[in-house]
């Protein structure tokens, strides 16, 4: 006996055998039982949901000699002849290979003849959207006013390609995706009939992989049955080349922790074991989708989840991934999956994608900026900004010196043998009475900067006005905010104090430092260089004036320090300015 594939062997023969389409089968059964049949039907829906099967069942039911409650009996000569193809009055056409106007004209010419062996002549046109425009036009007239003995059953997976003139002449039935639970139940029934032992986990896995198509599920079961009669989840994963929920969850955990090395090691291990990288990214996308749905729609997401992961794993992964970053991860995975089909080196593309997922700063797209902004928004709630990845460029030394020859001394002005600018006599007593500055947010305690207060107050605002038109708009909010950046001048050296490594990374660029060096050389004469230091001295302020410095010491001691929430707000405002500038550009 010739072996027959499961999806052909177990094709439904009655409306009651169709899985998951009760809203359609009940209507068709009633129409057959009451003899209130239409002359044209249009079945739409995704692949493997029962469109062609229902069309064949309907063709037998309308010609059956003894229908049972709307179902064909499958015993009479008409049913048996239609099923084995010996009755030519029921014809199944493939519009993909018969899409020309000549084929449709031939069909129209022979359709007027009465059937020879059964009551109705039935034409089943599969993938009808493949017909050409002239072919659709040739079909219109006979579809609108067919003979009494003629019935058309059209099926398509792309309803948008079917002209409205065709749709309006048909009764349209939309086949929905079959639920995973219904697919798993059907697979268990078929496995018992085929003498296969199918575990519950394996059946649920096959149902999820089928994506709502029963034919796909039967094909996967048929493929896995070749590996043995006992089918469990591990055997299905090995046969289909999938990673599995445990490995996928571990890889997502490395991405959440921004552990690039472990993520790449996990990918390399799965690649060496023969796992399909496209399938792996598909599993990652499904997991990310579930996490995003749980984060954005916690009340109604339970019915939308693909499943496959326990509640503890989902909760643990969801706690470390905000919605903005999940959106960024899902976007990157979807883009990488599209590239893999035409990639010349799939492993390299997957590794690059994982590196971007672990460190969003390597990507300049808008979803990446949203994910980075989400990290800053966590500061008011948690009290600190999450630390950047250890392998990122932000772990470089905090002090950088720029000159025309790119030479650096790495020392502030008070350590290179140059005396700071003297304080005016009328402010000397006040400066001595001021308390020492506390440690900055970066952890370093900068030295007393009171001797340069007058220099900062007179020099920095005018200096900013001179370079404002020569620097990018995205960095201007940092330079004009005294809590973010402050410049002081010593002979031959411009010291730029910044509040964090992030601000330093935004300003420490040639497009910013070059205009500043050029302006300083023109304003003060002679060569100049720039030194970056993290940690702004509290005693220094661009808005300092003599009247402010003459305030009593008690007032300086009782003034409230900026709160952590205010500092985080400043960071968000500055980051938002950069974000808006990118959108405008």
Might you state the CATH topology name of the largest domain? GMP Synthetase, Chain A, domain 3
The biggest sheet, with number of strands, parallel, antiparallel or mixed sense and barrel status, is: 5 strands, parallel
Envelope shape: elongated
Number of helices: 27
Calculate the terminal CA-CA distance, rounded to whole Å: 69 Å
Overall mean confidence score, pLDDT = 77
Helix and strand arrangement:
Layout lengths: L5 H4 L12 H13 L5 E6 L5 H13 L13 H8 L5 E5 L6 H11 L9 E6 L6 H12 L5 E7 L7 H4 L3 E5 L4 H14 L3 E2 L1 H11 L3 H12 L4 E2 L1 H8 L4 H12 L3 H13 L4 H20 L14 H9 L3 H18 L5 H13 L7 H12 L1 H4 L17 E3 L22 H9 L19 H15 L8 H5 L4 E6 L2 E6 L2 H7 L2 H15 L4 E6 L11 H4 L3 H6 L5 H21 L1
Parallel strand pairs: 1-4, 1-5, 2-3, 3-4, 6-7, 10-11
Antiparallel strand pairs: 8-11, 9-10
Helix pairs in contact: 3-4, 5-6, 8-9, 9-10, 9-11, 12-13, 12-14, 13-17, 14-16, 16-17, 16-18, 18-27
Give structural notes.
- By secondary structure, the protein is α/β, with parallel strands linked by helices.
- The chain has four domains: 6-175, Rossmann fold, CATH 3.40.50.300; 180-240, Helicase, Ruva Protein, domain 3; 245-358, Zinc Finger, Delta Prime, domain 3; 398-581, GMP Synthetase, Chain A, domain 3 (2-Layer Sandwich), CATH 3.30.300.
- Helix content is 50%, strand content 9%.
- It has helices at residues 6-9, 22-34, 51-63, 77-84, 101-111, 133-144, 164-167, 180-193, 200-210, 214-225, 233-240, 245-256, 260-272, 277-296, 311-319, 323-340, 346-358, 366-377, 379-382, 425-433, 453-467, 476-480, 501-507, 510-524, 546-549, 553-558, 564-584; strands at residues 40-45, 90-94, 121-126, 150-156, 171-175, 197-198, 230-231, 400-402, 485-490, 493-498, 529-534.
- The strands form three sheets. It has a five-stranded parallel sheet with strand order 2-3-4-1-5, covered by helices on one side.
- The chain is elongated, with a radius of gyration of 36 Å.
